[in-house]
Structures are given as C-alpha cells and as structure tokens.
Specification:
FAD/NAD(P)-binding domain, alpha/beta, 533 residues, Alpha-Beta Plaits, 5-stranded parallel beta sheet, single chain
C-alpha cells in the first residue's frame, strides 16, 4: 500500500475522492484496488477556500512502478495493532474488583475479562437505561437522586456529554487507536477511526456502554449496580477487600479505583483510610451560549451551508497570569444540570450525535491551583468546588442561573446594574429548569474578570464571541478531578493491590484518556497476577 494526502471541497462524494486520489497518483480510478481513509480533517484557515484534507492508504496496480517514478511516495510498513501483554504475573488472583463503571472502569473490566480474570465491577449508580430515566426526570423538575444522575451511574459523567473522543495524551503503545476501535466494535460509527476530532454524541454513547456491559457479562465478569463502596479493607499494607453499602464485605486481592471526578464521599473515605493523595490544579468557570449559526458563519463563512456545525477552541492568558480557555465545546448542544449533591448546582455541556440544536455552548474556564483553595488540605480543592456550587444553587434557587454577557460584564467591571436578561435576543438551550438571575457572586471577582478578559480576547478569533446577548450560566466546577491519588510506576498505591485509575484519581481528562488509563491499569494488574479461576 501507498499513503497519500489529498484535498477536496466540502460536499464531495466517495467517487470524487477516489478520482482525486487517482489523479494524485497519475493513474485511473480502475487501477486503485482499495482505498482506506486514515485521517480526515477540515482546513478552514483561508476562507472562502475551505477543504477537507484526507490521508489515504491506497492499494493499486503497479505500486513498485509508482514509487519509483513519483517523488515522495514509499511503501507503507505493516502497522501492528495494539496487543494486550502476553506475560502474566507470578501470583494467582481470583476476581479483581473494579470500583466504578465510567470509561476507565469499563475498559479495564473489558480487558481483564478478555484476559480471563472475570472481574467484579461495582457501580454506585444504576445501569445506563435506568439512569437515563432518572436524569431526564430530574431535568423536568423531579428531585435529584444523589446516586443516579449526570455524574453517577453506568458510563460515568461522559455518558451525558458531547461524547468527544480526541485526546492530547501521547500514545506510543496504540491504546488510543484501540479505544476507538472497540467503540466502533460496540456500536459507534466507523468515522471516529479517522476523523480529526471524533465524537459520537450522548445518544450513541449510551448504547455503546450497554453493549460493553453485555460483553463483560458474557465473558464471565460480574457487574453490580447500586453497590457503593463505602470502605477499603486493608491488612499489613495490602488490600484485602471492600465494604459495599456499609454492610457487605467482598474479598479482593486487587481493587481498581476507577471512581469519577465527583466521588467526593469516596475521596473523603480514602483519605481517612490513609491513602496518599494531594490537591491538584484544575479550572472553573461558566458555560457560554451563542447561536450556532453565528459560530458557523464566523468559522466557515459562505461554506457554512454545506458543512456540519462548527466548533471552536480558544485560549488566552489573563492579566494575572492565569490560563483562560474553552472546554468541552458542544456544537448544536445543550447546557445540562449536572448536579450530584443536594443544595449544590453545577452545569456541563451535552449534544446528540447529530448536533442539531439551535445553540452552541462551551465552558469558558480559568485555572485555579491549591493557592486558591484557602488551605493545603488534600480535599481543599473539592471543598472549593462545593462552595461555588452552593453559590450557584442559591443564585438560581435550585434552577440553572443564566445571565447575559452584557449584564455580567457591566456588574463585574463596576458599571451599570442591569437586569440579568438585558440584551437577550435568544433563549438558553438547557436540559433542566433555569432562570435569569445575577451570577456574578458565584465565582470570586478575579475569576469573573478572567472570564471577561477571555471573552474579549476570543472575539478576535470568533466573530461575535463577546456579543452582549451571549448567555452565561453556572457554575462549571467539575472540569477535572480536584485530587490526585498517588500511584507508583507499577500503578499501585502505597497500599499494595490498590490501583488508582482514570479521571477521578487524577490520571486522565475525558472519555478517551480515561479509557486508555483503564487499559493501562488492566495491563498492570496482569503484570502482577495470573488468573486463578
């Protein structure tokens, strides 16, 4: 095979792509035996000249002649896919216990199940089908269920998100590609294997999660829902099991802590047990909403009519040196009430696979570090989040609080006190109840000012970003875990047999990186133990 790169206009067909590839090689389409798309990205840097850029692997007649006569062409080396390590540890292990069924827990469980370990997965929430009903009822005004919500339940917090799958994690072992391949195996569209910024949407992701669950069960694993781990049992510096729902003991020689970034009671329990952890930096801010057509026009110009909903990614530095940037951008999406604790409110962004909503949203967040948390306690960042979320709940009286950028900017900068809806020309696209109200007292003033600095700077890249009618809602406080649970090179805590894993433990940030860390942790368990089943 030969790898080439070609550019084509939006709206092209596969036949047109084939013809472009043939022309690039100086052959006819009939001489191409196979064409595989390896990467697809959109180049909109020079509007109105917008192109899709494809990396293609071509199998053609007379490849040797093509390579010889055309400069820059070469044969592809055969690429090896990911392989789970063949080596097994020396010590037998019965059923490893995995705490949490977010991406890290599910992928760790799947790989251990395929390797013959028959893991037991413990999930404090409900299976995804039941969880979905609870979440939608909450959005329609039903009381919050603390164990079944946007944060807790099968699939983790990412289940009710945009389903973005891009990651900045360097990956020389092929785990990233393996995550995408497995998602396709269990129901995701094959396009995620080559799109530059793949996403699958919450509607498809829920089905994928359920299919992975069924595969783990088929392979002999167990998954227990509404089974909250309330204590880690240790003896002589090693794990010996867990306590479920404060009453039931379950013996285990290896426990994988794949809890999410919102498992605050679990963090508290672990600290009380002496598990080493520390507060870590993260970022907090507000969700911003614009009309999707405005974002499309800014990003694509006249080509917007034939292109999918546009995304953006923006970043800047504030005057006091903090980073301010967009996070979890959801084209055609919704702002969702993502609360998990009574009396506290946080928001997140979500979109379905089609991204057909009227509004675009993203979090505009400002970095915070342990110096902002009023103390050096390992859980100081967690308590900082809680204070912000309590302020958001009080501002909206339990509803998502919303304010126009005009009103927010004027009050923050000491100008006029305007009604919270002043300048609004469209309504928020939300999942959950909302109200227009003042949100300037939720975050510290310096963080509000940082958001304004960012909004003004970002308008240089996205026309209209700082429009007076931009809608802000809050609070976005759970961008990543507020703690890092210590682990060594063997991925174990100082308590032997305890494996902190994924986003909640502070080693991932998003669906793909969490799943990759789940695979990595499964490898570490296999390196220490052999299955004894």
């Amino acid at each position: 095979m030969i790898r080439i790169q070609v550019k084509v206009r939006p709206g092209h067909t596969r036949l047109e792509l084939l013809k472009k590839a043939a022309a690039s090689l100086g052959i006819s389409e009939k001489e191409i035996k196979e064409m595989k798309i390896r990467k697809k990205s959109l180049d909109a840097r020079k509007k109105p000249e917008i192109y899709y850029v494809y990396t293609l692997d071509i199998e053609a007649a007379n490849e040797a002649l093509l390579v010889k006569r055309r400069k820059g062409l070469s044969f592809l080396k055969e690429e090896e896919g990911y392989r789970f390590p063949d080596k097994r540890g020396r010590f037998p292990l019965s059923r490893p216990v995995i705490v949490g069924t977010g991406p890290a827990g599910l992928f760790c469980g799947l790989f251990l199940a395929r390797a013959g370990y028959a893991p037991v997965l413990l999930e404090r929430g409900k299976k995804v089908e039941e969880r979905q009903k609870d979440v939608e009822a909450f959005w329609q005004g039903a009381p919050l269920q603390p164990e079944s919500n946007v944060q807790f339940g099968e699939g983790g917090a990412g289940t009710f998100s945009d389903g973005k799958l891009n990651t900045l994690v360097k990956d020389k072992y092929g785990r990233n590609g393996e995550v995408l391949r497995i998602l396709v195996e269990f129901g995701a569209p094959s396009e995620i294997l080559y799109e530059n910024k793949p996403h699958i949407g919450t509607d498809i992701l829920r089905k994928v999660v359920a299919n992975i669950r069924e595969e783990i069960l088929r392979l002999g694993g167990r998954i227990r829902f509404e089974s909250k781990v309330t204590e880690i049992l240790t003896e002589n510096g090693a794990v010996r099991g867990v306590v479920i729902n404060e009453t039931e003991e379950l013996a285990a020689g290896a426990v994988i802590l794949a809890v999410g970034h919102s498992a605050r009671d679990t963090f508290t329990m672990l600290l009380q047990k002496g598990i080493p952890m520390e507060a870590k930096p993260f970022a907090v801010g507000l969700r911003v909403e614009h009309r999707q057509r405005m974002i499309d026009q800014s990003q694509y110009g006249e080509a917007a009519a034939v292109l999918p909903p546009a995304a953006y990614k923006v970043a800047a530095k504030t005057g006091d040196g903090r980073g301010v940037y967009s996070f979890c951008m959801c084209p055609g999406g919704y702002v969702v009430n993502a609360s998990s604790e009574p009396g506290r409110l946080c928001v997140n962004g979500m979109s379905y696979s089609g991204r057909k909503g009227e509004n675009a949203n993203s979090a505009i967040i400002v970095t915070v570090s342990p110096g902002d948390f009023e103390g050096t306690h390992p859980l100081a960042g967690m308590e900082f989040q809680r204070r912000l979320e309590q302020g958001a709940y009080q501002a909206g009286k339990g509803r998502i609080p919303v304010q126009t950028y005009l009103s927010f900017r004027e009050k923050t900068m000491g100008g006029r006190r305007l009604d919270a809806a002043e300048g609004a020309s469209f309504g928020p696209a939300v999942k959950g109840t909302f109200c227009f109200t003042d949100i300037t007292d939720i975050l510290p003033k310096n963080l509000n000012q940082g958001i304004i600095e960012g909004m003004e700077a970002f308008s240089r890249f996205v026309t209209g970003f700082n429009s007076p009618d931009t809608l802000l809602s809050g609070v976005e406080a759970r961008t990543s875990s507020p703690v890092r649970i210590w682990r060594g090179e063997d991925l174990q805590s100082k308590v032997r047999g305890l494996y902190p894993c994924g986003e909640g433990a502070g080693y991932a940030g998003g669906i793909t990186s969490a799943a990759m860390d789940g695979i990595k942790t499964a490898e570490a368990v296999a390196a220490a133990y052999c299955p004894a089943l």
